[in-house]
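Interim report to the steering committee. The following record documents the input for Signal recognition particle protein (529 residues).
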Amino acid sequence: MFNSLSDRLTATFKNLRGKGRLTEADVDATVREIRRALLDADVAVPVVREFTGRVRERALGAEVSGALNPSQQIVKIVNEELVEILGGETRRIRLAKTGPTIIMLAGLQGAGKTTLAGKLSKWLKAQGHSPMLVACDLQRPNAVTQLQVVGQRAGVPVFAPHPGATSTELDHPAGDPVAVARAGVEEAKRTLHDVVIVDTAGRLGVDADMMEQARQIRRAIVPNEVLFVIDSMIGQDAVNTAMAFDEGVNFTGIVLSKLDGDARGGAALSVASVTGKPVMFASTGEGLDDFELFHPDRMASRILDMGDVLTLIEQAEKSWDKDEAARMAKKFADQEDFTLDDFLAQMQQIRNMGSMKKMLMMMPGAQNIRQQLEQFDEREIDRVEAIVRSMTPHERVAPKIINGSRRARIARGSGVHVSEVNGLLERFAQAQKMMKKMAAGGGMPGMPGMPGMGGGGGARKGAKSAPKKKARSGNPAKAAQELRDAEARRAAGAKALPTGASFGQQGGDFDPSQLNLPKGFDKFLGGSK
């Protein structure tokens, strides 16, 4: 959604690179480009004016003028201000101290409230809660049925005593939504559900009658949270809608739906700043798992193409099989060969994390390769899996035995060309070599003293190339004294290091003259007189 804004901001910051000092004209030009980028992204004009004003004020202050890298300092300022207009800190659901936590959903019709109710319930269930959905949208045809289907997919019970309106009875909705909401809370208490999510009716516009109905439901159930669900693609009208709902039902938090759309996304940057209410959740896809807690700092990092590695790590921790990870860690420690079976298991683990495109877009600098990522075919993983599964168990363990005839057989079995089998085996061979080096504790080539690089050969090479010990003095008396001193040390079994041992010479007399030191410095070290 923020691709266009991210591209514009990234291009703006590139113009500042390499400048050791920023003039007022540089700052004004940068702020002007940021203003244009935000306005093009449909961010509300008051928000743009306030945002760029703060950025300009900070950019012209000592914060940037005294920085070693002014361009990076500008990026830091923009990042901090983006975090601020997105809500500042991550806001979580306030749970009730006694009784069930009541969450009421409100918003326009078509914003995605019913689907989001299922996503939120599944998310809460994964957090260890026992949620229940209450169908209070008795206005829209088949809304109750839709909520029941969503609840079934999420594995969450739905309280729906009335079927609601049907396509043949649009003007006569069945039941009172206020009574249904009140009964739903009582049912949750009776059945010991600790969270109640009330799905209310939407409206095509800011309808006074429907808003009054929402207010009555709010007064009847006294919710702990009132979440305003807003379509992220709504554009400039998002601010007016949000302010109307805030005045009508006094919502406590915002949920952004359809954040995976291709619109410009100004609503996400405007609503929190204008209403003063935090964005709490974001819906990022059509699946029930495409739902996440909203972190303003991480969203700002995504917009500025700095990635969102923390969310990526959280997804990996949630979906990664700990037993499989422990098995691979043990195999890695024992320096066992990395096989195609291991490769297949790791690939399945990655698939469990979700879409590869979404994961790669969370990496820093992903905007630079966005076109390649958009062209990436998720089915490529299916083809690779089919190739590996077409091999025999022995071939997966010892891929070197796969000759031409075997490759042709594998290609026929997996429905691909032989060239694709060849490419996979070549990439696997490279990965296997890299895994062997890492398992051996190897470092990068050319780094002396790193473990695994020739078994400590770096230290031996250093010993071989060390300068030879200086011959004893040609003065007979001095040479004899040196010999007596050496014999005395050997006889006493002296273990003390000779002068200069701290430089790494573990044996023999150290002569500072062997080092390329300034004239007279050898006397300071206690060397030859």
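The beta strands are 101-107, 131-135, 158-159, 195-199, 225-231, 253-257, 279-283, 291-293. The committee is asked to note this result when reviewing the revised timeline.
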